[in-house]
Amino acid sequence: MDYNKLVDTALLAGQILLESNAETYRVEDVMNRILDISELQTTEAIALTTGLFLTLDDPSMSPITKMKRIVHRDTNLSKIARVNMITRRLTEGKYTVEEAYESLNAIYETQYPLWMKNLSVSLLSAFFTLLLGGGIAEFLLAFINGGIMIITSKMEKRTGFGFFTHNIIYSCIVAAFVTIIKGNLLLKLNSDITITASIFPLVPGTAITNAFRDTLKGDYMSGLAKASEAIVIAISIAIGVAIGLVLAGGARL
Amino acid sequence: MTIQIVSALFAIMAASIYLEIPKRFIFRAGFVGALGWGVYLIFDDIYGIVLATYIAGIVVSITSHIISRRVKTPVTIFFIPGLYPLVPGYRLYMAVFSFMSGNGPLATSYLVDTIKISGMIALAIFTADALFHIINKVKKIIPQN
Question: Quick check: helix, strand or coil at residue A42?
């Protein structure tokens, strides 16, 4: 068996999972299951939120150790499902290591066209107003705010100023925009619901859920990393909303 | 309330596209989210937000575990969108808003609510995970006897 290829496959699977925001225990479990195919004496895999390490060793050979730094993370649940399926086929013997490596490499970046993803952001915000008990005015305004988010996130990708600044800019614009509309045009508008629903695509739901699951499984390093991610995102939204409210005259410092 | 539950279904389906869920699971994820939100709304009137979040969280977690076992896919796929409506975004915003409008005590009470709700989501996830862990263990032991 080509052990180098096996280690590469396990590393690639782990990398895709970590970059898609999978839980840490799942990443380690998948890498360990792939490494166990070698039936060597020592197989170890460690995944932290910001990097992963794995090693393969036996008295008959010199050890193979590889590591990978993970910089960029973006929630993509379909990638997690695909890696899970490929790993299951590999461990059941339906795929060879080469086939598994090829199909891991061929996992496509996105399965929805861009307009659909953009529309989903607007619809997510819009329907959240109804979910929180809003009416038609809140629905329409949140839908427009979703459009603003598409523009700001496009700006973020082009200039690369990072998620923290993006969150501040977007929530600042939304808070100011909604407060001004309420003050000048629609006095009956429930601005609390509208602003909350508009910032919902930014709210760290994935980070909170995974932070708890990792911590309760005993992965304290990853749990803390995800928890700090959630706190940092929450702070950035709070700063943005606060600036927006002050700018629009809806609050005082 | 019907409007809120139906809009929860659509909101979670939109969130599923945003989070890149496999196409064939979009409706199921929306169903889990709407179910959770419906349970939350019912128990909100009786027990208040904190306990309602816990009960809704347990319903979401258990439904996600059952569905993911049936279709053989990681449980995260239904978990993350399903718990989306329960995440205390509204309380967090109100805490900032009250603080900025100079109402300190109200801001503190909203912040405490945010922390309580987050803790309840964690507890709900833990309860469901532990429950299914035990069920798995029991299933493994029984055939051997």
Answer: strand
Domain boundaries, chain A: 3-105, 114-247
* 8 Å CB contact of A120 and B15: yes
Find the closest chain B residue to A121 by CA distance.
B18
* pLDDT tens by residue, B78-137: 888 888 888 888 888 888 888 877 888 999 999 899 888 988 888 898 899 889 889 888
Show me where the domains of chain B are located: 2-144
Q: Which of A204, A121, A118, A197 is nearest to A164 (CA)?
A: A204
Q: Which residue of B has its CA nearest to A74?
A: B19
What is the reported pLDDT for A14?
Answer: 93
Candidates B17, B79, B90; nearest CB to A132: B90
Q: Which of B26-49 are b and which e, b meaning 16 or more Cβ less than 10 Å from the residue's Cβ?
A: bebbbbbbbbbbbbbbebbeeeeb
C-alpha to C-alpha distance for A239 and A12, rounded to whole angstroms: 37
**pLDDT at position B31 over 60:** yes
User: Are B4 and A79 an interchain contact pair (Cβ–Cβ within 8 Å)?
Assistant: no
pLDDT band at A160 (very low <50, low <70, confident <90, very high): confident
Which residue does chain B place closest to A118, by CA atoms? B18
pLDDT tens-place string over residues A83-111: 998 999 998 888 888 888 888 888 877 77
**B110 burial class (0-12, 13-18, 19+ CB within 10 angstroms)?**
buried
pLDDT band at A252 (very low <50, low <70, confident <90, very high): low
A78/B22 Cβ within 8 A: yes
Distance CA A126, CA A117 (A): 14
Measured between CB atoms, which of B17, B37, B94 is closest to A192? B94
Strands (E), chain B: none
Rounded to whole angstroms, what are the CA distances from A7 to A25, A35, A41, A49, B30?
Answer: 18, 7, 15, 19, 38
Give residue-wise pLDDT tens across range B3-13: 889 999 999 99
Of A92-96, A145-149, A188-192, B117-121, minimum mean pLDDT range: A188-192
A residues 21-60 near B, CB within 8 Å? 22-23, 26
Question: Considering only CB atoms, which chain A residues are within 8 Å of B14?
Answer: 120-121, 123-124, 127
